[in-house]
Amino acid sequence: MTVDISNYTIATPLPISETNPIALELIGWRALLECPDVISMLPDGSLQMTAPTLGASSKSTKRTRCEWKEPGYWLLSSAADHWNRQEMRITKVNSLQKVVIAQIHVKGSERPPVKVFWNKGKIIMGFRSSYLQDDPVNSTVLENVPLGALFKINIHANSSGAVSVSASCNGVKSSSAIMRLDNSWDTKTLAFHGGVYNQIDYSESTDPEDASICVISDLSITHS
Questions:
Q1: Could you tell me which residues come within 8 angstroms of residue 143 by beta carbon, excluding any fewer than 6 positions away?
Q2: How many CA atoms lie within 13 A of 102 on its CB side?
Q3: What span, in angstroms and rounded, lies between the C-alpha atoms of 18 and 16?
Q4: What is the rounded distance in angstroms from the CA atom of residue 108 to the CA atom of residue 216?
Q5: Which of 66, 81, 198, 211 has a 20 to 30 A CA-CA distance from 99?
Q6: What is the full per-residue pLDDT of the chain (224 aa) written as tens digits?
Q7: How far is C-alpha 178 from the geometric centre of its chain's CA atoms?
Q8: Where are the domains of the chain?
Q9: Does the predicted TM-score (pTM) go above 0.70?
Q10: Strands, DSSP E only, in 78-183?
Q11: CA-based nearest residue to 104, from 67, 139, 132, 141
């Protein structure tokens, strides 16, 4: 099955230009044409996304990413159910062995309600119940997700603010508790993201070979 990100926005670890070091973002079909070193379609229709630890980042961080972003934002109340379903494998990970693989992003903030990490072979959920909450509360969703193993990750949110994350790998399935977003999120515009977002800061001493790579074999975003 071909993973279609032609209309998604791709955040790359590449600079906008030689004189502008901020990370380049562009529409999916152009990213596939112009940035084959970091995003490419494999022969079986899977999508490979690569984020060298040393690269371009946004103004607010020193962390690189190669992420898809769904086209457009939404309110929790805009649909009864919001789903992000992703089947993928991590084929390489940075030296810290920690990478964000999916999230519910909030427009205009670096404090999203939900982040999902692959962290040293575990799937971890970070959750903020309130928009003003500084630090997320982390919980383990699934253990024993080895490097290179195929796994599924689902994020579900409903119009009343109930959120859960489920994951499966090698026949083992697990889900988080049902979390509750408070009403501070009701007016915030949200969007699903996924791919690889390194959780390690780069510096002048960063190994140029250090990187995270994922292969996404199925991707589905629904609001209904």
A1: 121, 122, 123
A2: 27
A3: 7
A4: 27
A5: 81
A6: 799 999 999 999 999 999 999 999 999 999 999 999 999 999 999 999 999 999 999 988 899 999 999 999 999 999 999 999 999 999 999 999 999 999 999 999 999 999 999 999 999 999 999 999 999 999 999 999 999 999 999 999 999 999 999 999 999 999 999 999 999 999 999 999 999 999 999 999 999 999 999 999 999 999 99
A7: 20
A8: 9-223
A9: yes
A10: 81-92, 98-106, 114-119, 122-127, 137-142, 151-158, 162-169, 172-175, 179-180
A11: 67
Give dist(CA 60, CA 132) in Å, integer: 18
CATH architecture of 9-223: Sandwich (2.60)
Tokens at residue 186, please? 């009701």
Joined together, the tokens standing for residue 72 give: 């457009």
Residue 161, token pair as written in the block = 């603010």
Structure tokens at 23: 């990370």
Q: What is the DSSP letter of 45?
A: S
Q: In the 8-state DSSP scheme, what is residue 178? A: P
Name every residue whose Cβ is closer than 8 Å to that of residue 118 and which is 6 or more positions away in sequence. Answer: 90, 93, 98, 99, 101, 124, 145
